[in-house]
Amino acid sequence: MDALPTPARQLTVTDQLGRRVTLPFPPQRIVSLVPSQTELLFDLGLGDRVVGVTKFCIHPPTARHSASVIGGTKNFDFTKIKAAQPDLIIGNKEENYQEGIAQLARHFPVWLSDITTLPEALDMIRRVGDLTGKAHLAEPLAAEIKYSFDRLRLAAAPSASVAYFIWRKPYMVAASGTFIDDMLRRAGFRNAFAGLGRYPEITPEQLAAAAPEHIFLSSEPYPFGEKHRTEFQELCPAAKIQVVDGELFSWYGSRLRLSAEYFQRLRAGLAAE
Fold first, then answer.
1. How far apart are CA 218 and CA 263, in angstroms?
2. Alpha carbon of 40 to those of 2, 37, 75: distances in Å?
C-alpha cells in the first residue's frame, strides 16, 4: 500500500452545531462515531483512513475488521480512541452523548452533524466531503440523492396516516422534529403522532385514539419482525401493519441513495393491498 500523504496545512471549519473545529487537512486518521456517517466515509473512498468505528457500524461489512471498534454510539472506549490517534472524529448531536463528546473534544478535533431534514443531510454530506478533501465525490453524491427525492415528490400520492414504531416495551414512535418524520412526509405519508415531539412513549390507548391507517414497524433500533404483526393488529385492528427497513428511513449518509426508490416501492405495495 502506498504511504498516505502528509497533511499539508491546518483547516478550520464550522460543524452543523456552529462549533469551530481545526484539523489537519486532509485528515489521515478518522474515527467515526455514527454508523451512517461511517458508510459515507467509505463511499467517499476514505476507508483506508478510517481507524475507529462503533460496534453498530455494519456498512460496509468490512468496516469493523479494518478499523478498531471503539464501543457504541453512547458508550465510547476512550482508551481505544486514544490508541487510534485520530486527527479527526466525526459524530452526531443526537446519536452520541454530550459528556463523551466534550471529553473527546478536549484532546481531538471533533466535528458534529445535526440532522433532522433531508437538506441538512445533504449539507452534512457536502461538508464531510469538504473537510476530508473529497468534495469532488461528495457533491455529485448529494446531487444524486436530491434528484431521487425530487422525482419521488413529483410522484407523491395523497398522504395516508402512519404510526412509525422504533421501540417495544415501552412502545415508542418517531414524531415531529425527527429525520424519520421528514422522510415519512417525503415518502407521501402523514405522521399520526406529528403533534408530539421527538421519540415519545405511547400507550395502546393513544395508538387506538390516533387510528393510523398504517403502522410501520422499523427494523431498527428495535428489531421488529413479522412475528410482531399480530401484536399490533390486535391493538389497532383497522390498520395495515408493515415491517419497514429502518436504515432507509433513518440513515442520513450515502444510504439515502436507496431511500427514494424504496419509498416508492413501499407506497405502491401498500396501495395494491
1. 13
2. 23, 5, 22
Answer yes or no: are the C-beta atoms of 199 and 165 closer than 8 Å: no
* Residue whose C-alpha cell is 391493538: 235
Task: Please name which of 159, 219, 230, 221 lies closest in space to residue 188, comparing C-alpha atoms.
Answer: 159
Kind and range of the H or E run holding 73: none
CATH of the domain at 185: 3.40.50.1980
Secondary structure (3-state) at 18: coil
Q: Which structural domain, as residue segments, surrounds residue 227?
A: 157-272
235's grid cell: 391493538
CA distance linking residue 122 with residue 141, whole number of Å:
9
**210 and 193 in contact (C-beta within 8 Å)?**
yes
**Residue 228 located in a structural domain:** yes
Structure confidence by residue, pLDDT tens digits, 156-203: 655 899 999 999 999 999 999 999 999 999 999 999 999 898 999 999
Q: 229 and 163, same structural domain?
A: yes
Residue 31: partners with Cβ closer than 8 Å, 6 or more residues away: 50, 51, 52, 53, 70, 81, 84, 86, 88, 89, 90, 108
Q: pLDDT tens for residues 130-160? A: 999 999 999 999 999 999 999 987 666 558 9
Structural domains counted in the chain: 2
